[in-house]
Amino acid sequence: MSAESKLLLDRWRLVVVLIWLAACAWLLWQRWGAIHWFALGDTDDNMRISQVRAWLNGQGWYDLRQYKLNPPQGFDIHWSRLVDLPIAGIILLVRPLFGGKIAEQTAVAIAPLIPLLLTMVAAALTARRLIHPLAYIVACGLVLCCQVALGMFQPLRIDHHGWQLAFLMLTIAALADPQRVRGGITVGIASALSLVIGLELLPFIAVAGASIALRWIGRREAKPRMVSYAISFAIASAIGFVLFASYANRAPVCDALSPVWLSTILVACAGLLLLSQLDPAGWRARLLLALGAGAIVAGFYWFTWPHCRGRLEGVSPELYKLWLSNVREARPIYMQNADTIIAGLTIPTIGLIGAAWAIWRARRDEAVYCWSSIVVLSLFAVGMLFWQVRVGPAAQLIGVIGATFLGWHLIGWFAASERMLVRVFGIAGAFLLVSGIATYAVFPLLPTEQKKDKPFWDKVEHANRTCPTLPSLHPIALLPPATVMTFVDLGPRLITVTHHKAIAGPYHRNQQAILDIHHAFDGPPEQARAIAKRHGATLLLVCPYMSESTLYRSRSPKGFYAQLERGARFPWLEPVPLPKGSPYWLWRIK
In terms of domain of life, where is this protein from (predicted)? Predict the structure, then answer.
């Protein structure tokens, strides 16, 4: 082994941190303008900083009611304070030195990069444990090539998905941990922390737990991993519930870590501990007992919490039709454009091929159980893409492990060549292949989606780009505080960068207010006036051609919004002048 290789082997943690720091520098430079303009592009990022502000301004730790939406009562959001902690910590550190504005800019820039480090460390650990001690370099490089997943760690992306992805990768690293007890404890804690944040990755957590049970079924020696997992998962979930469950989440709600899921987790963990005590010698007996325990857990959930049998969001059929079915990330991957399909499926597919090859090579080794877990998670993730494309980031990161295995062996094969050109171009080509970068060359060859009314869609793109900006919202922020009736997707941005309140934001617990906004813009003008009065709204704000407006325009061509867009005016609406070039139309509601 050369001195360079030995240095990379001995200082692997430092190397990972250096790669992460280089990535941070690149991402911060790339997003510097957006950081300066506080361009939180996603509604959840805006809501997250609003929640952090409310907490720092004195709102209770367990009170997650957002009072600036649906005033005066507000609505309870289904999140927890766990993800608020690093954001608030950075603000409190920076604010005394540079003031509140720079403190918030610093927080939204740096906070998303912290879970990226955990993700890279977990990927490196997994590669070292399953592939080769030096394969961690390939794994870290591939993490940075997952463009869909990397978007969850970019500066300004302060929502909780980055942390959940980091805990998912930590779970995979723990499944590959040769020390069974430590591995089981890590999976249990990572799973509990992910559930404390939200239920988005609940199916992957269940698959990871099932893989631990299956490993015990195949090998009795795996019992310490299962026991430590069951104990740590139960204890960490209970502690997480006590520390982070909001007042609203202490009720038996279905969309957060509540008594519903805590009780189910405790029953499942008790079942695993009972299995470990029985521990029959034959694998068939262990399989039958595990199936029976799984049936008991499923029956407990089904009959104890019957109101959670359907969609966990609990939205009405009308709200699903009007709103949720139109959310792009809630649609399957085959309903996306060609670029999204290729980008979303490339690394997961390559990773699945690599993991399948790894299973074959490790078929007589205990590592086959680790690779089997990764293959099951990969298959599950790819299958979930055909339900909702929102699992794309998780599918990409899971695929990194198998892609690293494939890339490492391809690189090794080319590196062994006696020809320098083969070594140089072969290694580069192998990385381009397994990283999915090579597929980008296909994008220019894909048929361009031709929209029938290009000038109209150009206006939509312009509105989406300009309406949420600080300069566009500044004149509205100068007006006296008011409750504003506006688009659902504008609500979180409005309450974040102005002192105004809004009726609705795109959150399922806010469903009646969402329906009210849809009914207002879809229905007749007098209905809109009555809805505004009921919510105490004194301003009406619309951004013509913004994406949400196209729904009202196409769905209800004779509705209130469509009439506004065509220039109709009503005696109960008094125009409020805005600066020339403003993308907004604003009225005072008499």
Answer: Bacteria
- Are 227 and 362 in a shared domain? yes
Around Cβ 140, how many Cβ atoms within 10 Å?
24
CB atoms within 10 A of CB 407: 27
Residue 329 belongs to a domain: yes
CA distance 398 to 386: 16
E-assigned strands of 364-495?
Answer: 483-485
pLDDT tens digit sequence for 1-51: 677 677 778 899 999 999 999 999 999 999 999 999 999 989 999 999 999
- Report the percent of the chain where pLDDT is more than 70: 97
| 566 and 489 assigned to the same domain | yes
pLDDT of residue 454: 79
Structure token digits, residue 355: 């993991």
Its pTM surpasses 0.85: yes
Mark whether 196 and 339 lie in a shared domain.
yes
R_g (Cα) of the chain, nearest Å: 26
Task: Give the Cα separation of 481 and 60 in Å (integer).
Answer: 23
On whether both 412 and 478 belong to a single domain, the answer is no
As beta bridge partners, residue 589 has 573
What is the tally of structural domains in the chain? 2
Q: Give the mean pLDDT of the chain.
A: 92
Neighbour tally for 282: CB within 10 Å? 9
Report, as an integer, the average pLDDT of 459-478.
95
Provide the pLDDT confidence category of residue 238 given band limits of 50, 70 and 90: very high
Query: Among the three residues 373, 404, 439, which one is the final residue of a domain in this structure?
Result: 439
C-alpha pair distances (Å), 126 with each of 26, 172, 258, 503: 25, 7, 32, 46
Range of the domain at 487: 464-589
Amino acid at residue number 241: F
85 pLDDT band, cuts 50/70/90, is: very high
With the CA atoms of 38, 41, 45 and 49 taken in that order, what torsion angle do they form, in degrees rounded to the nearest 10?
Answer: 20
Please confirm whether the linkage preceding 471 is cis (ω < 30° from 0).
Answer: no
Instruction: Say if 317 falls within a structural domain.
Output: yes
Flag whether pLDDT at 82 surpasses 80.
yes
Question: Within its chain, how far is the Cα of 567 from the centroid?
Answer: 40
Backbone angles phi, psi at 573, to 5 degrees: -115, 120
State whether 412 and 516 are in the same domain: no
Residues 364 and 511 in one domain: no
For range 153-158, the mean pLDDT: 97
Q: What was the pLDDT predicted at 368? A: 85
pLDDT at residue number 450: 59
> For residue 457, is it within any domain?
no
Which two tokens mark 202? 């609940």
Cβ-Cβ contacts under 8 Å for 243 (sequence gap 6 or more) = none
Q: Tell me: do 361 and 503 sit in the same domain.
A: no
Let me know whether 411 and 529 are in one domain: no
Contact between 359 and 368 under an 8 Å Cβ cutoff? The reply is yes
CA dihedral 176→180→182→183, nearest 10 degrees, is 30
Q: Which of 401, 424, 439 delimits the end of a domain?
A: 439
| CA distances, 220 to each of 184, 282, 283, 557 (Å) | 15, 9, 8, 66
